[in-house]
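Progress against Task 2.4 (sequence-to-structure conversion) is shown through the following example record, which the project officer requested during the mid-term review.
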Amino acid sequence: MGFTIAIAGATGSVGREMLEILAERGFPADTIVPLASRRSIGQEVTYGDKTLKVQALENYDFTDCDICLMSAGGNVSKEWSPKIAAKGCVVIDNSSAWRYDSDVPLIVPEVNADAIEGFTKKNIIANPNCSTAQLVVALKPLHDHATVKRIVVATYQSVSGAGKDGMDELFSQTRAVFVSDQVENKKFTKRIAFNVIPHIDVFMEDGYTKEEWKVLAETKKILDPKIKVTCTAVRVPVFIGHSEAVNIEFENPITADEAREILREAPGCLVVDKPEDGGYTTPYESAGEDATYISRIREDATVENGLNIWVVSDNLRKGAALNAVQIAEVLVNRGLIAPKKQAA
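Structure tokens generated for the chain above:
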């Protein structure tokens, strides 16, 4: 008998992506339960060739549920994840609510799958920030080979990272520009159409934004606390796909050719790197794909043992929904959970 999987936030962009990926990958689920707020009761979502009706999160009894993929936002997760976990249902949370809790593992399966066993402390597993997920997938094999000392990251993050409202704003502003209508800013602090905004999330006391701090804190927790990280996070007028320009300083020597070969063999990575027109990946090509693409691999002559790389991934998939499903697969494949209905 298969598992019972709940999707909290099933009507959102990431929730719908989770449903699609569960079906695509043939996850061993007998029952899929889409959940959302009361106002979404009765809405329909698609799972494979099935159409499912959304139920209210607050009315659902998780007693027989095995895994809840939580993508309903931080405030909802803070309230509901402990309640769901107390019912014996493992919560895989996509928000930032639990990422920095020492009793909650923060998992990217290609990078630190072994840390998942710590989930039993709270029955909650955290999914990293979308920018962090693709970054550590690319860094892990290089770190194993030459030990990453310091990284400088500039992100180019698509509007889908801000949800449906962000995507709608880019569309409406772009249309307004072409028809000479007034451009209105609602979701973003400045116009996003034909512009870039060096501001994601709230500002902190040190002048960095919360998004930039997340990349720092999560990279250290997932990969290595000794790595020094600095980041500038930028919102760009792209619908889907985050890009990152990453400068890496290593403890030990590593060449660009060595890095290429290492990354070609690394799980989750796909190297597209030719020094010619079009010999690299852009966010447009990454949309709908599972891989973390790495291009523009070259040595940095300004520091000892330095490399520059360009990292691109679909933020709705590897940055959110796919990673959550992969975490669930690790739980199942390692025998860390069993279906409640079968065990009963």
